[in-house]
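User: Please run a holo structure prediction.
Assistant: Happy to. Please share the sequence and the ligand.
User: Here you go; the ligand is thiamine diphosphate.
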Amino acid sequence: MVQDSTRLNGLRAKHGRPPAGPHEPQAAPSTLRQGQPRFRGLEAGHRACQGCGEALAARIVMENAGPDVMVANATGCLEVFTTPWPQSAWRVPWMHSLFENAAAIASGMEAALKARGRNTKVLAFGGDGGTYDIGFQALSGMLERHHDVLYVCYDNEAYMNTGIQRSSSTPHAASTTTSPAGKERMGKRHLKKDLLSIIAAHHIPYAASASVAYPADLARKVRYAMGIEGPTFLVVHSPCPLGWRHASALTVEVARRAVECGLFPLVELERGALTNIMPIRTPRPVVDYLELQGRFAHLFDETDTRAIEERDHLQALADHNILTYGLAGTGDDPVDTTGIAHVRRGGPLAERT
Ligand SMILES: Cc1ncc(C[n+]2csc(CCOP(=O)(O)OP(=O)(O)O)c2C)c(N)n1
Ligand code: SF4
Ligand SMILES: [Mg+2]
């Protein structure tokens, strides 16, 4: 934790923010840190489905962003399950935006806070529908105008709140209610949009992908982004048991396999350049990931030759990611996909059991 705290304050100094406040990690032995109560910006008792990856991701993000934040939240499952009138699961100032304008609302909140001399950090939250598709224009503007906002996209790869419609983030060949698998087609015809590359092309200080399967890695990325003054972006892979049709208890396992096979690479980009990746120690076959989910069940019909072709296609996409980002690990890197699954709370480089 000494490392974390020093690094955060160094970053804050570099980017013109004041040193860490009392809610942020102080220099203390990791045992003390683990004994401390966590800041719960998103309370338990909300109405997400059992095993909802989005709920888990948002909880980790809020724990690590700390209490001095305000949130603009686009319409979608996260907004709906946390705020059934007259209740709210949020312990921070939180504003519901329209589906398409979370980034515009966040830009205004940030400008107003700045005008008042306040240092409260603004967070903007959206699903993949609200980020990859309908809110993209507002997001691009927010990044280009260099607002001091951390935007987090909870990527469950479809419009879940309205009944599992395909988005531009839905993976190729996944079956959704608007790309149903059948005689006409094998699920979605098109490819998942490479949003992170588009975001990085705005040359913002920091953009990264993360996964609920690697909470220590996600926590580190949130803390790093929080220390930067300027626009930052995280896309968090968040399985949806309802829409992906997997058992609720398998959320983390499904998310882990997506990373381990290369279909959802964990990478970091600063000012448009790739600065870090999570190496995959032993890449898994893509079928290990697909077979857990009903949305890919049609790819296991051995009487259908299209199924084999599509499985091969998805494997080729994963191989392409592994090659493009140089994900293939070499040896016992402590922060690779195998090692990081076993780290204790406190960060990947903390003492390990
Ligand atoms: C302009 C507009 N179009 C459509 C809707 C209906 N709508 C509400 S939530 C939602 C799906 C949200 O999908 P996503 O952003 O991926 O979030 P998720 O529910 O999957 O977390 C839709 C289509 C809306 N509220 N506003
Ligand atoms: S439908 Fe999916 S994203 Fe929405 S609350 Fe349920 S599990 Fe979460
Ligand atoms: Mg979604």
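Residues 138 and 225 are 20 Å apart (CA to CA).
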